[in-house]
Amino acid sequence: MHKLLPASLALALATPHCALAESPSDLATLRQEIATMRAAYEARLEALETRLKAAEAAAANSATVPGATAASAAAVVASAPPPPAPVASGGGANAFNPAISLILSGLYTSTSRDPEHFAISGFQLPTDAEVGPGTRGLSLAETELGISANIDPWWRGSTAIALHPDNEVSVEEAYVQTTSLGHGASLKAGRFFSGIGYLNPQHAHTWDFVDNPLAYQALLGTQYGDDGVQLTWLAPIDQYLELGAELGRGRSFPGTDTSRNGAGMVALTAHTGGDIGASHSWRAGLSVLRAKAKDQELDAMNTAGNSVTNAFSGRTRVWVADAVWKWAPNGNATRTSFKLQGEYLRSTRDGDLVYDVDNVASAADYRAVQSGWYLQGIYQFMPGWRVGLRTEQLDPGSSRFGANAAALDLGNYRPRKNTLMFDYNPSEFSRVRLQFARDRSREGVTDNQFFIQYQMSLGAHGAHGY
């Protein structure tokens, strides 16, 4: 790097002497660009040397301190300030060319029950909730277009645009994020998936199954995303520890998108983890999300067995406990590996509920405490081949409807589902998956669901999280 810089400067300085027609202002511009390039590369070199020293110190510490692990060394290195991105000069800084990726996905769905009548017994869901197995037959699944790049030495930007099978387009994520706050801190602003739980921040193409668990569908509307700000902090200690806080508009279920000056959503997250020897690693966390809703339309069944639309106004608090354990021989997951993960979600809703808004329109106090969990294991038994099993269940809990108690009774049926998955990954950029699920989300109804899915990744795509 020390040899490249003088050579680059010599070449740049030689250019104006060869171009005799350059004006004095052009020469001044060239000199300014050279000075900018020199400052940027010197800053990057200094930052890289700082990170190298931190890595060497962490490696020495792990070799001399009992109980030090690879995860603790990584935490020390991560706490060092990242190198600033190079400053753009003129029209050609390749570092600022955006990385573009495209995830292509297709799906074949076969169900023994009509998906149009899908419901989760005992749970009131928004009228526009995207839950259940989707449409039957051949279809495009969600296609994702991703664009990301550095903006300057302090910020980077990223966006994920979803192309839905019905030809609709939506913005899943579009945010800016700091790159050099230092001290393990990072600030994100824009639209993004909340950091609560384990699965929620992940994009659909990284899921180990075709669909998200019932607990996510019933209590978070499948996946919670919002417009707001997020601050995370990685503690500079041996043990991996990351804390996060979010403020959002509250536009998604269990909140509603209403005109308000203040925040409609607040979330707090805490995750910790580490290594156990050379072959095992783990992560666990606890999160809480609080959202406001106003006149939120919900589909429900009354005691007479008729479909009604209710309207909820109030607050919802969702707690999420998550845990993940991974095994790979000597940390090498290319041939064989195993991942066990599970989450428990608990939702409490307090406020007012208007029963049957189109007819009776009877308002009364409302409180509901409901929960759900899932547990899944993914085993890679040879390179490229994996098999997975997931079991899950919901608990309708207790609900208080006040004056509407006679018309609304959610019952005590516990929806459940078991899923078997088998997929083949010829490379890290392609996947073909078979999945069979026995779904008992509706009381007295068993739905056998069969899926064939492909996922193909084109272009530059960043590494996925743990």
Features:
466 residues, signal, 16-stranded antiparallel β-barrel, globular, Porin_dom_sf, Zinc-regulated TonB-dependent outer membrane receptor, alpha+beta, 4 helices, disordered N terminus, Porin, coiled coil, 2 domains
Q: Got a strand count?
A: 18
CATH fold node name of the largest domain: Porin
CATH homologous superfamily of the largest domain, by name? Answer: Porin
Main beta sheet: 16 strands, antiparallel, barrel
Coiled coil: 31-65
Keywords: Coiled coil, Signal
Signal peptide: 1-21
Protein name: Zinc-regulated TonB-dependent outer membrane receptor
Write up this protein.
Residues 31-65 form a coiled coil. This is Zinc-regulated TonB-dependent outer membrane receptor. Residues 1-21 form the signal peptide. Keywords: Coiled coil, Signal. The structure is a single chain. By secondary structure, the protein is an alpha+beta fold. It has two domains: 4-68; 102-459, Porin (Beta Barrel), CATH 2.40.160.10. The chain is built from four helices and 18 strands. It has helices at 4-18, 24-64, 70-79, 214-220; strands spanning 99-111, 125-126, 137-140, 143-150, 155-163, 169-178, 185-193, 225-234, 240-248, 265-276, 280-301, 307-327, 337-355, 362-382, 385-400, 416-427, 430-440, 447-459. The chain has a 16-stranded antiparallel barrel with strand order 1-4-5-6-7-8-9-10-11-12-13-14-15-16-17-18. The longest helix has 41 residues, at 24-64. The radius of gyration is 26 Å and the shape is globular. Residues 1-23, 62-80 and 84-93 have low confidence and may be disordered.
